Amino acid sequence: MASEDVKSTGETAVTRIVGLAEEAKLAREGVKGPSYAVLSICKSLVAGGVAGGISRTAVAPLERMKILLQVQNSHNIKYNGTIQGLKYIWRTEGIRGLFKGNGTNCARIVPNSAVKFFSYEQASSGILWLYRQQTGNENAELTPVLRLGAGACAGIIAMSATYPMDMVRGRITVQTERSPYQYRGMFHALGTVFREEGFRALYKGWLPSVIGVIPYVGLNFAVYESLKDHILKHNVFGLADDSELGVATRLGCGAAAGTIGQTVAYPLDVIRRRMQMVGWKDADAIFTAGGRNRQALEYNGMVDAFCKTVRHEGFGALYKGLIPNSVKVVPSIAIAFVTYEYVKDILGVEVRISD
């Protein structure tokens, strides 16, 4: 009986090995097995997550400064600019203050980035298939408009999947040493908001976020991929294929993509942050200097938030924090794209976002 069990186990192992060998053979011949597809998906998600974590940590101080400038009261100004604000944080909170909220931010951005890059690949593949079916041209390629659509789909999916973490990250980030601490971390913040304000509070500011993510993420992918295609097709630097694009060229394409995307979508980001603060009982102590200003924190929706922000603080308030955000976005988006592609090279993922 024992010998039969050993024989059975041996046959199972041999069958599995033969199966893996056959799958590897099919992969080399261009036919991908199910295990290969799952592994490729996992590698793609890992590459996107690593790209998001590295790029966001590199610019964490500027990210916090941007949010503080976005939500501060115009009648009780504490931060007069990016440099002054960073110096003030360093002086009052130390180096840890510059990275406050980054752990929560990375906990959000890693899955967000993973889902975003993977969703873009899937969306662009599906859109390209439909485009070829519509035109009857099997050799058709994605146009900038189609890339914009694929990027918009990816941004909406990623934003919706991780929005509660972004919401509480915004609140944690604006807390200072002198403010009454309500949140001790991401999970404590999620639980507290859910318990005190309800489930819907976790999605405050979702609508302007989704509307803003359409041009932001859409333009990021569309501009980045289109610039790369233009450089290769017109042989700008004498390059033969995508693999010859250097780090500096990729960073330049990413920087241009990030700058254009964030400039178009920035006012919606400001409104999103302000709407996220509604219902937080400690917001008074952090942002207001009296009853009149407290009223400016009460919004009945996205349009109301826009109107009150412009009425109380002027049109320029929609671009508060734009300078640190611009300085942040250029390296952040560039690093994310470059890291994503190089990590995929290291992991051996064959499919690229250009494909």
From TrEMBL:
It is found in: Mitochondrion inner membrane. Coiled coil: none annotated. Keywords: Membrane, Mitochondrion, Mitochondrion inner membrane, Repeat, Transmembrane, Transmembrane helix, Transport. GO terms for biological process: organic anion transport; organophosphate ester transport; transmembrane transport. InterPro entries: MCP (IPR002067), MCP_dom_sf (IPR023395), MCP_transmembrane (IPR018108). The keyword Transmembrane helix applies. GO terms for cellular component: mitochondrial inner membrane. This is Mitochondrial adenine nucleotide transporter ADNT1-like protein.
